Amino acid sequence: MRARVEIDLGALRANVRALRARTDGAAYMAVVKADAYGHGMVRCAEAALQAGATWVGVATPYEALELRAAGITPERARVMCWLWTPGGPWREGIEADLDMSVSDLWALAEVTEAARATGRRARIQLKADTGLGRNGCQPADWADLVDKARAAEREGLVTVTGLWSHFACADEPGHPSIAAQLARFDEMSARAYAGGLRPEVRHMANSPAVLTLPEARFDLVRPGIAMYGLSPAPELGTPADHGLRPVMTLAAPLALVKHVPGGHGVSYGHHYVTAGPTTLGLVPLGYGDGVPRHASGAGPVLVDGKWRTVAGRIAMDQFVVDLGGETPPEGTEAVLFGPGDRGEPGAEDWARAAGTIGYEIVTRIGGRVPRVHVDAEPHGNAGPGADAAGPRD
Ligand SMILES: *Cc1c(COP(=O)(O)O)cnc(C)c1O
């Protein structure tokens, strides 16, 4: 194999259990958007359900429909999606029993029309913009949305199953926007109740809120990154500080090891020049596989027990590390990041090297790299051992 992304489903389940243990009976929505942050959407959703999640959350309706098509039936899990565009597949969403987020009157009009056409009630959740300033309904427009949703409920076209919102700065404990958003959510919820809505769930908590804000748990929590074993922000501590274990490992065998003289330029642009005679190792991974080009000259790699640094530019398919005269044989594993058991770097180290966040490091890996789901737990769906699946499994 040229390279592999290993996904430890046992670690994912353990992370879900660890997060559930601290959420006091709130229902657990496993957020598996963007192919489960690069970890494989269906396999991760299945593993999270085994560990006690009862909801699965994704951004787009197409992701939600893919989950249903893969066998995550309404009997097994509620599936919610929150990013709709005009003309979106509302009818398919109703038929697939999705919980569909509505932030605006245009979406309410489209979903009620689809409900009328199918003769079935749509399950919708109203999203409040309590301060994030992204998706969601502004407080000034909320009463109108609530009243029209209630009217559609009376007509038998929709059931408002939830009220929800999303934090802007939950990863900065003490940030004044956090209390302001919670207060606004309470006010907007009160207006919805006064308007006659009786939502089954209210929810706000992403991973940083699950880890730091017990008052934001409400009836349901929506952790994403923490389930994949990463800390939402380095300031909130390491994964281990939260009892979490990174789920993804990215590794590749060295494709070439060779001696070069001093003064030799390495990779495009010759941004790295060998200081003296040395050895170079070729790692067959590049930005075409999601390794960020911004980590050129900086990304860390474990080779033969030692951290090496990307020498020069990361190219589309490959990059080079300076092995300092050592000559591990071709085929020796180069580990870019993983849980750290063997002393390898973590996704956070790559995030720092590339000037980004751990979320982006894991989410962008994929495309061409085969994903291998490893399931060491005997009661896991996949049974003991490992199985290799294509990048789109
Ligand atoms: C992505 C997302 C989450 C999960 O966020 P994490 O920070 O990964 O826990 C929760 N809710 C919504 C609306 C999201 O878009």
TrEMBL record:
Residues annotated for substrate binding in this entry: R134, M316
Pathway per the UniProt entry: Amino-acid biosynthesis; D-alanine biosynthesis; D-alanine from L-alanine: step 1/1
Entry keyword annotation includes Isomerase: yes
Stored Gene3D superfamilies: Alanine racemase (3.20.20.10), Lyase, Ornithine Decarboxylase, Chain A, domain 1 (2.40.37.10)
Assigned EC number: 5.1.1.1
Pfam families named in the record: Ala_racemase_C, Ala_racemase_N
UniProt xrefs under InterPro entries: Ala_racemase, Ala_racemase/Decarboxylase_C, Ala_racemase_C, Ala_racemase_N, Ala_racemase_pyridoxalP-BS, PLP-binding_barrel
Active site as annotated: K33, Y268
Cofactor(s) essential for the protein: pyridoxal 5'-phosphate
Region ranges (Disordered): 373-393
Reactions catalysed, as given in the entry: L-alanine = D-alanine
Biased composition, class Low complexity, residue ranges: 379-393
Keyword Isomerase: yes
Keyword terms, alphabetized: Isomerase, Pyridoxal phosphate
N6-(pyridoxal phosphate)lysine, modified sites: K33
One term of GO molecular function: alanine racemase activity
Domain of life from the UniProt record: Bacteria
Residue span(s) of domain Alanine racemase C-terminal: 247-374
Family membership: Belongs to the alanine racemase family.
Biological role stated in the UniProt entry: Catalyzes the interconversion of L-alanine and D-alanine. May also act on other amino acids.
Protein name: Alanine racemase
Organism of this sequence: Streptomyces albidoflavus
